Amino acid sequence: MTHPIRIAPSILSVNLGHLAHSLESISCADYVHIDVMDGHFTPNLTFGPEMVRACKGLTDLPLDVHLMITNPDETIDWYIDAGADLVTVHYETASHLNRVVNHIKSRGIKAGVVLNPSTPVCMLEDIIDDVDVVMLMSVNPGFSGQSFIEGTVAKLRKLTELCRAHDADPLIEVDGGISLATINRVVAAGANLLVAGSAVFGADDPAQMVRDLRDAGEAARAPRA
Q1: Which CATH homologous superfamily contains domain 6-220?
Q2: Residue 212, exposed/middle/buried by CB under 10 A (0-12, 13-18, 19+)?
Q3: Catalytic residue (one of 35, 38, 64, 132)
Q4: CA–CA separation, 124 vs 121, rounded Å?
Q5: Which DSSP letter does residue 147 get?
Q6: What's the pLDDT score for residue 11?
Q7: Which of 79, 111, 178, 198 could pair with 202 as two cysteines, CB 3.0-4.6 Å apart?
Q8: How large is the angle between the packed helices 97-106 and 72-82, nearest 10 degrees?
Q9: What is the structure's pLDDT at 130?
Q10: Cβ–Cβ contacts within 10 Å for residue 90, how many?
Q11: What is the C-alpha radius of gyration for the chain, rounded to an integer number of angstroms?
């Protein structure tokens, strides 16, 4: 199955004093991406379940909650109860990854696994059949506005090969440095859910940028004449 290109603007790049307006400005997107950082797994501290709850009350878009935290096993229900529609946990932090993934799915929402830039795709061998989403970090977790790590493209190709070998069809998400300058390469390599923060919210017209990114992604995998 070929998933449509989906765009998930990250609120890490918004002025939180204007959160409602920012969410309204990207109503044409496919997800709202919420980066939860705990100041332990990442060098930065960002949002908790109350931010998820606030966004749930301000938008009809599904919430893509990315847990960059050291204890997802113990706290994942906080974010599900707050309104997450998709939760991704890092391979590097979940002590019992299969249990966490199955628990998320038992709550009736999508479950995903995230790999840091230095974590190889082969680590997903025993979980790829169970996940709805695989996210590759194309920057090191912690801050918005970082430059895209070029090695992500080759890593995406390995991920698509693994999915093909298992006859698995998760959404393939990429987070970090996504813009009109990079989206074509990651989509051509297999990505179909793209997180974009500063590229969207730094644009004069965020909604138009969402549409432009989606169009660029679809064009990148269109068959060539």
Answers
A1: Aldolase class I (3.20.20.70)
A2: middle
A3: 35
A4: 6
A5: P
A6: 96
A7: 198
A8: 20
A9: 97
A10: 23
A11: 16
Length of the chain: 225
Cα-based torsion angle of the residue sequence 128, 130, 131, 132 in order, rounded to the nearest 10 degrees: 120
CA atoms of 132 and 214, how far apart (whole Å):
21
Catalytic, 175? Answer: yes
**Active-site position among 30, 38, 64, 175:** 175
**Structure tokens belonging to residue 34:** 């919420």
Residue 225 pLDDT = 44
Give this prediction's pTM.
Answer: 0.95
pLDDT tens for each residue of 152-195: 999 999 999 999 999 999 999 999 999 999 999 999 999 999 99
Residues 107 and 181: their CA atoms lie apart, in Å, by 37
Domain ranges of the chain: 6-220
Structure tokens at 174: 């990429």
pLDDT band at 2 (very low <50, low <70, confident <90, very high): confident
State how far the Cα of 10 lies from the Cα of 27, in Å rounded to an integer: 13
Tell me the β-bridge partners of 114. 90, 135
